[in-house]
Give the backbone structure.
Amino acid sequence: MNRTDQSEWNIIVVVADTLRTAYLGCYGNDWIHTPAIDRFAGQSARFSRAHPECLPTIPTRRTLHGGRRAFPFADYRPVPWDNVYMPGWQPLSAEESTVAETLQQAGYHTGFVADVPHYFVPGMNFTRGFRQWAFVRGQAEDRWNAIADADPALFDRYRAGDRERIAAHLVNVRPHLPEEHWPTARTFQRAIDFVRDNRGTTPFYLYVDSFTPHETWEAPLHYYDLYGSRADREPVCLTAVYGPSDAEYEGRLPSLRANYAGLVTMVDTWFGRLMETVDSLGLRENTLVLFLSDHGTNFGDNAENVMGKPADYMYPGTMDIPLLVRHPAGLGAGQVRDELVYTLDVPATVLAAGGLHADYPADGMSLLPLLEGTEGFARRQYLTCRYGNSVWYRDDRTWFFSTVEWRNPRLFDLETDPSCQVNVANSNPERIALARRRILADAGGHLNYYERQDSTDALGRPEFATR
Protein backbone atom coordinates (compact mmCIF):
# COMPACT_ATOMS: atom_id res chain seq x y z
CA MET A 1 0.00 0.00 0.00
CA ASN A 2 1.13 3.52 -0.78
CA ARG A 3 0.49 5.07 2.62
CA THR A 4 1.56 8.37 4.14
CA ASP A 5 1.22 9.97 7.55
CA GLN A 6 -2.17 11.26 6.30
CA SER A 7 -3.48 7.71 6.76
CA GLU A 8 -3.94 8.54 10.45
CA TRP A 9 -6.67 11.02 9.61
CA ASN A 10 -10.24 10.11 10.36
CA ILE A 11 -12.54 10.86 7.42
CA ILE A 12 -16.22 11.85 7.55
CA VAL A 13 -18.39 12.38 4.47
CA VAL A 14 -21.89 13.82 4.96
CA VAL A 15 -24.38 13.92 2.08
CA ALA A 16 -27.75 15.71 2.30
CA ASP A 17 -30.08 14.68 -0.53
CA THR A 18 -31.74 17.45 -2.61
CA LEU A 19 -30.04 20.28 -0.73
CA ARG A 20 -29.75 23.21 -3.11
CA THR A 21 -27.06 25.86 -2.69
CA ALA A 22 -29.64 28.67 -2.94
CA TYR A 23 -31.00 27.61 0.47
CA LEU A 24 -27.73 27.94 2.40
CA GLY A 25 -26.46 31.10 4.04
CA CYS A 26 -22.86 30.35 3.13
CA TYR A 27 -23.88 30.34 -0.55
CA GLY A 28 -25.53 33.74 -0.34
CA ASN A 29 -29.04 33.18 1.02
CA ASP A 30 -29.89 36.05 3.39
CA TRP A 31 -33.03 34.61 5.02
CA ILE A 32 -32.35 30.92 5.60
CA HIS A 33 -31.33 29.72 9.08
CA THR A 34 -28.28 27.48 8.58
CA PRO A 35 -25.90 28.60 11.34
CA ALA A 36 -24.10 25.27 11.75
CA ILE A 37 -23.40 24.77 8.06
CA ASP A 38 -22.40 28.43 7.70
CA ARG A 39 -20.02 28.11 10.65
CA PHE A 40 -18.60 24.92 9.15
CA ALA A 41 -18.16 26.73 5.82
CA GLY A 42 -16.04 29.34 7.58
CA GLN A 43 -13.77 26.53 8.75
CA SER A 44 -13.68 24.95 5.30
CA ALA A 45 -12.93 25.57 1.68
CA ARG A 46 -16.21 26.29 -0.12
CA PHE A 47 -16.50 25.24 -3.75
CA SER A 48 -18.67 27.63 -5.74
CA ARG A 49 -18.84 25.59 -8.96
CA ALA A 50 -19.50 22.03 -7.80
CA HIS A 51 -21.79 19.78 -9.82
CA PRO A 52 -22.85 16.11 -10.05
CA GLU A 53 -21.19 13.91 -12.65
CA CYS A 54 -24.44 11.94 -13.04
CA LEU A 55 -27.96 11.94 -11.62
CA PRO A 56 -30.12 11.22 -9.71
CA THR A 57 -29.91 9.49 -6.27
CA ILE A 58 -28.51 6.03 -7.00
CA PRO A 59 -26.23 6.90 -9.95
CA THR A 60 -24.64 9.61 -7.81
CA ARG A 61 -24.16 7.16 -4.93
CA ARG A 62 -22.44 4.78 -7.32
CA THR A 63 -19.99 7.61 -7.96
CA LEU A 64 -19.51 8.43 -4.28
CA HIS A 65 -19.08 4.83 -3.11
CA GLY A 66 -17.19 3.48 -6.11
CA GLY A 67 -15.03 6.45 -7.07
CA ARG A 68 -15.57 5.80 -10.78
CA ARG A 69 -17.63 7.67 -13.35
CA ALA A 70 -21.12 6.25 -13.69
CA PHE A 71 -21.66 8.47 -16.75
CA PRO A 72 -22.70 7.65 -19.50
CA PHE A 73 -24.79 4.66 -18.30
CA ALA A 74 -23.69 2.41 -21.15
CA ASP A 75 -24.59 -0.82 -19.31
CA TYR A 76 -27.91 -0.11 -17.60
CA ARG A 77 -29.29 -3.17 -15.83
CA PRO A 78 -32.32 -2.58 -13.60
CA VAL A 79 -32.85 -4.52 -10.38
CA PRO A 80 -36.17 -6.10 -9.38
CA TRP A 81 -38.23 -4.72 -6.51
CA ASP A 82 -37.17 -1.14 -6.90
CA ASN A 83 -39.55 1.79 -7.38
CA VAL A 84 -37.34 3.71 -9.81
CA TYR A 85 -36.33 2.48 -13.26
CA MET A 86 -34.15 4.82 -15.29
CA PRO A 87 -30.72 4.74 -16.94
CA GLY A 88 -27.88 4.42 -14.42
CA TRP A 89 -30.14 3.40 -11.53
CA GLN A 90 -28.45 0.09 -10.76
CA PRO A 91 -26.25 -1.59 -8.13
CA LEU A 92 -22.59 -1.07 -7.48
CA SER A 93 -20.68 -3.42 -9.73
CA ALA A 94 -19.84 -6.71 -8.06
CA GLU A 95 -16.71 -6.85 -10.22
CA GLU A 96 -15.16 -3.64 -8.87
CA SER A 97 -13.88 -2.73 -5.42
CA THR A 98 -15.34 0.16 -3.43
CA VAL A 99 -13.76 3.05 -1.56
CA ALA A 100 -14.90 1.61 1.77
CA GLU A 101 -13.42 -1.83 0.98
CA THR A 102 -10.10 -0.25 0.09
CA LEU A 103 -10.00 1.82 3.26
CA GLN A 104 -11.05 -1.14 5.40
CA GLN A 105 -8.29 -3.30 3.94
CA ALA A 106 -5.82 -0.52 4.72
CA GLY A 107 -6.75 -0.53 8.40
CA TYR A 108 -9.64 1.92 8.60
CA HIS A 109 -12.66 1.17 10.77
CA THR A 110 -15.52 1.91 8.37
CA GLY A 111 -19.07 3.04 9.14
CA PHE A 112 -22.14 3.83 7.04
CA VAL A 113 -25.35 5.45 8.33
CA ALA A 114 -28.21 6.34 6.00
CA ASP A 115 -31.96 6.76 5.86
CA VAL A 116 -32.03 6.77 2.03
CA PRO A 117 -34.39 3.88 1.24
CA HIS A 118 -33.05 3.29 -2.28
CA TYR A 119 -29.69 2.18 -0.88
CA PHE A 120 -31.25 -0.87 0.70
CA VAL A 121 -33.37 -2.29 -2.11
CA PRO A 122 -32.31 -5.96 -2.37
CA GLY A 123 -29.25 -6.34 -4.58
CA MET A 124 -28.08 -2.71 -4.53
CA ASN A 125 -24.80 -3.70 -2.82
CA PHE A 126 -23.92 -0.41 -1.12
CA THR A 127 -23.00 -1.81 2.30
CA ARG A 128 -19.84 -3.47 0.99
CA GLY A 129 -16.71 -2.55 2.89
CA PHE A 130 -18.44 -1.19 5.99
CA ARG A 131 -17.70 -2.91 9.29
CA GLN A 132 -20.65 -1.07 10.83
CA TRP A 133 -23.72 0.07 8.95
CA ALA A 134 -27.22 1.16 9.83
CA PHE A 135 -30.35 1.62 7.75
CA VAL A 136 -32.38 4.17 9.68
CA ARG A 137 -35.99 3.42 8.87
CA GLY A 138 -38.81 5.88 8.41
CA GLN A 139 -38.53 8.01 5.29
CA ALA A 140 -41.76 8.10 3.32
CA GLU A 141 -40.40 5.95 0.47
CA ASP A 142 -39.27 3.27 2.92
CA ARG A 143 -41.22 0.01 2.68
CA TRP A 144 -41.60 -0.15 6.42
CA ASN A 145 -44.90 0.45 8.20
CA ALA A 146 -48.35 -0.50 6.92
CA ILE A 147 -49.95 2.26 4.87
CA ALA A 148 -53.33 0.67 5.64
CA ASP A 149 -52.80 1.90 9.20
CA ALA A 150 -52.76 5.57 8.21
CA ASP A 151 -55.47 7.63 9.93
CA PRO A 152 -57.91 8.69 7.18
CA ALA A 153 -58.91 11.72 9.25
CA LEU A 154 -55.45 13.19 8.61
CA PHE A 155 -55.54 13.01 4.83
CA ASP A 156 -57.33 16.34 4.48
CA ARG A 157 -54.24 18.08 5.89
CA TYR A 158 -52.46 17.31 2.61
CA ARG A 159 -52.94 18.37 -0.98
CA ALA A 160 -55.15 15.79 -2.67
CA GLY A 161 -53.24 13.49 -4.96
CA ASP A 162 -51.15 10.41 -4.29
CA ARG A 163 -52.96 8.85 -1.32
CA GLU A 164 -50.39 6.07 -1.05
CA ARG A 165 -47.55 8.58 -0.65
CA ILE A 166 -49.53 10.53 1.96
CA ALA A 167 -50.27 7.32 3.84
CA ALA A 168 -46.60 6.25 3.74
CA HIS A 169 -45.57 9.67 5.05
CA LEU A 170 -48.03 9.43 7.94
CA VAL A 171 -47.05 5.94 9.07
CA ASN A 172 -43.29 6.16 8.39
CA VAL A 173 -42.19 9.74 9.05
CA ARG A 174 -44.91 10.11 11.74
CA PRO A 175 -44.86 13.92 11.63
CA HIS A 176 -46.85 14.21 14.86
CA LEU A 177 -43.89 12.95 16.90
CA PRO A 178 -41.16 15.14 18.44
CA GLU A 179 -38.17 16.02 16.25
CA GLU A 180 -35.90 13.41 17.87
CA HIS A 181 -38.09 10.65 16.43
CA TRP A 182 -37.86 11.84 12.83
CA PRO A 183 -35.53 9.78 10.60
CA THR A 184 -33.25 12.80 10.01
CA ALA A 185 -32.52 13.17 13.71
CA ARG A 186 -32.08 9.44 14.21
CA THR A 187 -29.67 9.25 11.26
CA PHE A 188 -27.39 11.93 12.66
CA GLN A 189 -27.72 10.50 16.17
CA ARG A 190 -26.45 7.15 14.90
CA ALA A 191 -23.55 8.98 13.28
CA ILE A 192 -22.84 10.77 16.57
CA ASP A 193 -22.89 7.41 18.37
CA PHE A 194 -20.43 6.00 15.84
CA VAL A 195 -17.99 8.85 16.45
CA ARG A 196 -18.29 8.56 20.23
CA ASP A 197 -17.97 4.79 20.24
CA ASN A 198 -14.99 4.78 17.87
CA ARG A 199 -13.11 7.86 19.05
CA GLY A 200 -10.26 5.56 20.09
CA THR A 201 -10.62 3.27 17.07
CA THR A 202 -8.67 5.32 14.65
CA PRO A 203 -8.39 5.90 11.88
CA PHE A 204 -12.08 5.64 11.00
CA TYR A 205 -14.10 6.41 7.87
CA LEU A 206 -17.74 7.42 8.39
CA TYR A 207 -20.13 7.98 5.50
CA VAL A 208 -23.45 9.62 6.49
CA ASP A 209 -26.32 10.04 4.04
CA SER A 210 -29.43 12.00 5.02
CA PHE A 211 -32.45 11.70 2.71
CA THR A 212 -33.73 15.02 4.07
CA PRO A 213 -34.41 17.56 2.58
CA HIS A 214 -35.61 15.27 -0.22
CA GLU A 215 -39.37 14.96 -0.53
CA THR A 216 -41.67 14.45 1.36
CA TRP A 217 -41.74 18.09 2.38
CA GLU A 218 -43.28 18.54 5.79
CA ALA A 219 -41.07 20.08 8.46
CA PRO A 220 -41.60 19.99 12.23
CA LEU A 221 -43.72 23.00 13.14
CA HIS A 222 -40.98 24.88 14.99
CA TYR A 223 -38.87 24.82 11.82
CA TYR A 224 -41.78 25.66 9.52
CA ASP A 225 -42.61 28.66 11.72
CA LEU A 226 -39.25 30.23 10.84
CA TYR A 227 -40.40 30.65 7.25
CA GLY A 228 -44.17 30.43 6.89
CA SER A 229 -47.55 31.24 8.36
CA ARG A 230 -49.54 28.44 9.96
CA ALA A 231 -52.67 29.91 8.42
CA ASP A 232 -51.22 29.18 4.98
CA ARG A 233 -49.59 25.85 5.78
CA GLU A 234 -52.39 23.46 4.83
CA PRO A 235 -53.08 21.65 2.64
CA VAL A 236 -49.42 20.60 2.81
CA CYS A 237 -47.79 19.79 -0.54
CA LEU A 238 -45.56 16.83 0.20
CA THR A 239 -44.08 16.94 -3.30
CA ALA A 240 -43.93 19.25 -6.30
CA VAL A 241 -44.89 18.49 -9.86
CA TYR A 242 -41.80 17.52 -11.89
CA GLY A 243 -42.11 20.02 -14.71
CA PRO A 244 -43.60 23.46 -15.39
CA SER A 245 -45.71 24.70 -12.50
CA ASP A 246 -49.47 25.09 -12.71
CA ALA A 247 -51.87 27.51 -11.06
CA GLU A 248 -52.63 25.20 -8.15
CA TYR A 249 -48.96 24.80 -7.24
CA GLU A 250 -48.37 28.52 -7.63
CA GLY A 251 -50.84 29.07 -4.80
CA ARG A 252 -49.11 26.53 -2.57
CA LEU A 253 -45.53 27.70 -3.22
CA PRO A 254 -45.13 29.76 -0.01
CA SER A 255 -46.09 26.77 2.13
CA LEU A 256 -44.06 24.35 0.06
CA ARG A 257 -40.94 26.50 0.20
CA ALA A 258 -41.37 27.10 3.93
CA ASN A 259 -41.54 23.37 4.61
CA TYR A 260 -38.49 22.71 2.43
CA ALA A 261 -36.56 25.50 4.15
CA GLY A 262 -37.60 24.09 7.51
CA LEU A 263 -36.18 20.70 6.58
CA VAL A 264 -32.93 22.38 5.49
CA THR A 265 -32.69 23.98 8.92
CA MET A 266 -33.42 20.62 10.53
CA VAL A 267 -30.47 19.09 8.66
CA ASP A 268 -28.37 22.07 9.76
CA THR A 269 -29.28 21.49 13.40
CA TRP A 270 -28.30 17.83 13.39
CA PHE A 271 -25.22 18.25 11.24
CA GLY A 272 -24.16 20.88 13.76
CA ARG A 273 -24.55 18.38 16.58
CA LEU A 274 -22.38 15.90 14.72
CA MET A 275 -19.65 18.51 14.25
CA GLU A 276 -19.93 19.58 17.90
CA THR A 277 -19.32 15.95 18.86
CA VAL A 278 -16.24 15.71 16.64
CA ASP A 279 -14.84 18.91 18.11
CA SER A 280 -15.72 18.20 21.75
CA LEU A 281 -14.00 14.81 21.58
CA GLY A 282 -10.80 16.46 20.41
CA LEU A 283 -10.97 14.87 16.95
CA ARG A 284 -11.06 18.02 14.85
CA GLU A 285 -7.31 18.24 14.29
CA ASN A 286 -7.11 14.73 12.83
CA THR A 287 -10.45 14.46 11.02
CA LEU A 288 -11.15 15.47 7.42
CA VAL A 289 -14.83 16.35 6.91
CA LEU A 290 -16.62 16.78 3.57
CA PHE A 291 -20.20 18.04 3.28
CA LEU A 292 -22.15 17.97 0.02
CA SER A 293 -25.40 17.17 -1.75
CA ASP A 294 -26.20 15.00 -4.74
CA HIS A 295 -28.38 17.64 -6.46
CA GLY A 296 -30.87 20.37 -5.71
CA THR A 297 -34.45 21.05 -6.78
CA ASN A 298 -36.48 23.86 -8.38
CA PHE A 299 -39.34 26.01 -7.17
CA GLY A 300 -40.30 27.66 -10.44
CA ASP A 301 -37.25 29.94 -10.29
CA ASN A 302 -35.93 29.32 -13.79
CA ALA A 303 -36.61 30.20 -17.42
CA GLU A 304 -39.39 27.63 -17.82
CA ASN A 305 -41.06 27.88 -14.40
CA VAL A 306 -40.05 24.29 -13.67
CA MET A 307 -40.67 22.63 -10.31
CA GLY A 308 -38.87 19.66 -8.82
CA LYS A 309 -35.89 18.06 -10.54
CA PRO A 310 -37.06 16.54 -13.83
CA ALA A 311 -34.35 15.11 -16.07
CA ASP A 312 -35.35 17.24 -19.04
CA TYR A 313 -34.68 20.53 -17.21
CA MET A 314 -31.13 20.56 -15.84
CA TYR A 315 -31.19 24.11 -14.49
CA PRO A 316 -28.93 25.44 -11.72
CA GLY A 317 -31.59 24.64 -9.12
CA THR A 318 -30.89 20.98 -9.85
CA MET A 319 -27.25 21.08 -10.93
CA ASP A 320 -25.60 23.45 -8.42
CA ILE A 321 -24.54 21.56 -5.29
CA PRO A 322 -22.84 22.61 -2.06
CA LEU A 323 -19.38 21.18 -1.42
CA LEU A 324 -17.46 22.11 1.74
CA VAL A 325 -14.14 20.54 2.79
CA ARG A 326 -12.70 21.03 6.30
CA HIS A 327 -9.01 20.16 6.52
CA PRO A 328 -7.69 18.74 9.82
CA ALA A 329 -5.01 21.43 9.94
CA GLY A 330 -7.44 24.20 9.00
CA LEU A 331 -5.80 24.68 5.60
CA GLY A 332 -8.00 26.48 3.09
CA ALA A 333 -10.42 27.65 5.79
CA GLY A 334 -12.60 30.47 4.52
CA GLN A 335 -11.46 30.12 0.92
CA VAL A 336 -13.97 30.22 -1.92
CA ARG A 337 -12.72 28.00 -4.74
CA ASP A 338 -13.98 28.54 -8.29
CA GLU A 339 -12.54 25.40 -9.91
CA LEU A 340 -15.02 23.22 -11.79
CA VAL A 341 -15.38 20.18 -9.52
CA TYR A 342 -17.50 17.02 -9.47
CA THR A 343 -19.05 14.72 -6.91
CA LEU A 344 -16.45 12.41 -8.47
CA ASP A 345 -13.74 14.37 -6.65
CA VAL A 346 -15.10 13.45 -3.22
CA PRO A 347 -14.05 9.76 -3.27
CA ALA A 348 -10.72 10.76 -4.83
CA THR A 349 -10.19 13.14 -1.90
CA VAL A 350 -11.14 10.44 0.60
CA LEU A 351 -8.64 8.01 -0.90
CA ALA A 352 -5.92 10.64 -0.98
CA ALA A 353 -6.59 11.47 2.68
CA GLY A 354 -5.98 7.81 3.46
CA GLY A 355 -2.80 7.77 1.40
CA LEU A 356 -4.38 5.29 -1.00
CA HIS A 357 -5.17 7.30 -4.12
CA ALA A 358 -2.32 5.75 -6.10
CA ASP A 359 -3.59 2.24 -5.35
CA TYR A 360 -7.19 2.74 -6.49
CA PRO A 361 -8.57 3.50 -9.96
CA ALA A 362 -10.52 6.60 -8.93
CA ASP A 363 -11.63 8.81 -11.83
CA GLY A 364 -11.82 12.09 -9.93
CA MET A 365 -9.13 14.37 -8.56
CA SER A 366 -8.28 14.93 -4.92
CA LEU A 367 -9.24 18.39 -3.67
CA LEU A 368 -6.54 18.38 -1.00
CA PRO A 369 -3.90 20.10 -3.18
CA LEU A 370 -6.25 23.07 -3.57
CA LEU A 371 -6.45 23.45 0.22
CA GLU A 372 -2.81 22.70 0.86
CA GLY A 373 -1.36 24.84 -1.92
CA THR A 374 0.43 21.93 -3.57
CA GLU A 375 0.41 20.49 -7.07
CA GLY A 376 -1.92 17.70 -8.08
CA PHE A 377 -5.22 19.25 -9.20
CA ALA A 378 -5.44 20.02 -12.92
CA ARG A 379 -7.99 22.76 -13.55
CA ARG A 380 -10.79 21.45 -15.77
CA GLN A 381 -12.06 23.19 -18.88
CA TYR A 382 -15.56 21.72 -18.65
CA LEU A 383 -17.89 19.21 -16.93
CA THR A 384 -20.45 16.74 -18.29
CA CYS A 385 -23.36 14.89 -16.70
CA ARG A 386 -26.18 12.50 -17.62
CA TYR A 387 -29.62 12.26 -16.01
CA GLY A 388 -32.11 9.79 -17.47
CA ASN A 389 -32.09 10.36 -21.23
CA SER A 390 -30.74 13.91 -20.90
CA VAL A 391 -27.20 15.28 -20.86
CA TRP A 392 -25.65 18.46 -19.47
CA TYR A 393 -22.48 20.41 -20.09
CA ARG A 394 -20.85 23.52 -18.68
CA ASP A 395 -17.62 25.42 -19.07
CA ASP A 396 -16.66 28.94 -18.03
CA ARG A 397 -19.01 30.54 -20.58
CA THR A 398 -21.67 27.99 -21.47
CA TRP A 399 -24.45 26.09 -19.70
CA PHE A 400 -26.10 23.51 -21.99
CA PHE A 401 -28.54 20.61 -21.75
CA SER A 402 -30.61 18.52 -24.16
CA THR A 403 -31.76 14.96 -24.70
CA VAL A 404 -29.09 12.36 -25.51
CA GLU A 405 -30.40 12.57 -29.09
CA TRP A 406 -29.74 16.35 -29.02
CA ARG A 407 -33.40 17.35 -29.08
CA ASN A 408 -34.77 20.36 -27.16
CA PRO A 409 -31.42 22.10 -26.66
CA ARG A 410 -31.12 24.88 -24.08
CA LEU A 411 -28.01 26.99 -23.99
CA PHE A 412 -27.23 29.90 -21.69
CA ASP A 413 -24.39 32.42 -21.74
CA LEU A 414 -22.97 32.37 -18.22
CA GLU A 415 -21.09 35.64 -18.75
CA THR A 416 -24.24 37.69 -19.37
CA ASP A 417 -26.86 35.37 -17.85
CA PRO A 418 -25.39 33.47 -14.86
CA SER A 419 -28.83 32.46 -13.57
CA CYS A 420 -29.72 30.84 -16.93
CA GLN A 421 -32.89 32.76 -17.74
CA VAL A 422 -32.54 33.33 -21.52
CA ASN A 423 -32.12 30.37 -23.88
CA VAL A 424 -29.77 31.41 -26.70
CA ALA A 425 -29.44 28.00 -28.36
CA ASN A 426 -30.76 29.20 -31.72
CA SER A 427 -28.01 31.80 -32.09
CA ASN A 428 -25.06 29.71 -30.86
CA PRO A 429 -24.70 26.59 -33.01
CA GLU A 430 -20.92 26.58 -32.55
CA ARG A 431 -21.27 26.38 -28.76
CA ILE A 432 -23.76 23.52 -29.07
CA ALA A 433 -21.36 21.74 -31.40
CA LEU A 434 -18.53 22.09 -28.87
CA ALA A 435 -20.72 20.82 -26.04
CA ARG A 436 -21.79 17.82 -28.13
CA ARG A 437 -18.22 16.96 -29.04
CA ARG A 438 -17.08 17.08 -25.45
CA ILE A 439 -20.06 15.14 -24.11
CA LEU A 440 -19.53 12.41 -26.71
CA ALA A 441 -15.80 12.36 -26.01
CA ASP A 442 -16.47 11.75 -22.31
CA ALA A 443 -19.06 9.11 -23.26
CA GLY A 444 -16.66 7.16 -25.45
CA GLY A 445 -18.32 8.31 -28.67
CA HIS A 446 -21.90 7.11 -28.14
CA LEU A 447 -24.88 7.73 -25.85
CA ASN A 448 -27.50 5.01 -25.50
CA TYR A 449 -31.13 6.11 -25.50
CA TYR A 450 -33.21 3.84 -23.25
CA GLU A 451 -36.91 3.49 -24.00
CA ARG A 452 -38.99 1.62 -21.45
CA GLN A 453 -41.16 -1.15 -22.85
CA ASP A 454 -44.48 -2.53 -21.62
CA SER A 455 -42.91 -5.95 -21.09
CA THR A 456 -40.90 -7.30 -18.15
CA ASP A 457 -38.30 -10.03 -17.87
CA ALA A 458 -38.60 -13.24 -15.84
CA LEU A 459 -37.62 -11.38 -12.65
CA GLY A 460 -40.26 -8.72 -13.12
CA ARG A 461 -37.87 -5.98 -14.21
CA PRO A 462 -39.08 -3.55 -16.89
CA GLU A 463 -37.38 -4.09 -20.21
CA PHE A 464 -35.78 -1.28 -22.18
CA ALA A 465 -35.11 -0.90 -25.87
CA THR A 466 -31.77 0.75 -26.63
CA ARG A 467 -30.85 2.86 -29.61
